[in-house]
Amino acid sequence: MTGSADASAVANAARKRFPDFFIVGHGKSGTTALYEMLRRHPQIYMPVKEPSYFAPDLGAPAGSRAPARRRDRLENYLSLFADAAPEQRIGEASPSYLRSSTAAARIAELQPNARIIAILREPASFVRSLHLQFVQAFLEPEKDLRKALALEDARREGRDVPDGYLPETFLYQDRVRYVEQLRRYHAAFPENRVLVLIYDDFRRDNVGTVRRVLRFLDVDATSPIETIEANPTVRLRSRRLNDVMQAVAMGAGPASTVVKLPVKALVPRSLRRKLFRTARQRVVFATPRPPDEELMLELRRRFKAEVIALSEYLDRDLVGLWGYDEIG
User: Fold this and answer.
1) Is the pLDDT confidence value at 38 over 90?
2) How far, in whole angstroms, is CA 229 from its chain's centroid?
């Protein structure tokens, strides 16, 4: 049923509240910004991003804020939402759920009335942005996207995979199976319980898209909405430079002593930490370089069939919106 959960655990969990809705992905497609904007609504309770309980087939997400001990058992997972007020709708956002082959069925089994929100992005830009994110997070050692993509066959066989991660994590192009991924949710939930958003619409009109989501969730859609840009795509300048900045911030090593002694005398501790975080963001990371247009064209040619199929599936001209009508 739910993997390791036995009958008594499910019985105990049944007395607790389950999430009412799920933002299922994809990552780098506005899921973090949507999560941050929704969780500020007084009628919504979203305490943590990426618990990923319903996607055990993919392992723990990189950088997850939910402790591992809270991801492995149903009762512990549900305890994340224990502080929700009775009148609030409970939600969670785990971008891995769209990619997972089991999450849709597992969610439907325990919460058949759930509402599902998926966000899709033009495939080539999605793959590029995801790779940059993985480099920034030190998951992906290969900074060059073309070379990282060339490693996919080897990684599929379990070779050249960064320690501690499943090979599937780094199969960037395999994530672009939008129709197959959506079908799993449409098979598990009524059509009116699944909302598919397009990243371009969200970027163009944050507030309007969030109000559409609020209406979908049957909460007040007239409340003030704070526009938030979260998890922006950046380029890593140097891992060595990052390590030096981290050492300074943590007070480790000779560089830290040289920098922090005069600063410590003049600046309160809380402000020092904020200043070091800001400096690290500005020094270690940079605006991404322009994409390799030749590679992006190659990717778009590869993904054209998927975009055509998705356009037909959603009955929306994504071929034209994403410029695939200009690709031979």
Assistant:
1) yes
2) 14
The encoded tokens of residue 146 equal 């073309």
3-state SS of 200-261 is HHHHHCHHHHHHHHHHHCCCCCCCCCCCCCCCCCCEECCHHHHHHHHHHHHCCHHHHHHHHH
Q: What is the arrangement of strands in the sheet containing 21-25, beginning at the earlier edge strand?
A: 44-45, 89-93, 21-25, 115-120, 194-198
Give the model's confidence band at 64: pLDDT under 50 very low, under 70 low, under 90 confident, else very high.
very low
Domain regions of the chain by residue span? 7-216, 235-286
9 CB-side CA count, 13 A: 15
In sequence order, which residues have a C-beta less than 8 Å from that of residue 212 and are 6 or more positions away? 195, 197, 221
Distance between CA atoms of 131 and 118, rounded to whole angstroms?
20
Rounded distance, CA 64 to CA 52, Å?
Answer: 8
CATH superfamily of 7-216: P-loop containing nucleotide triphosphate hydrolases (3.40.50.300)
pTM of the model: 0.79
Give the integer Cα–Cα distance in Å for 187 and 204: 30
Q: How many CB atoms lie within 10 A of CB 119?
A: 25
d(CA 10, CA 1) in angstroms, rounded, equals 10
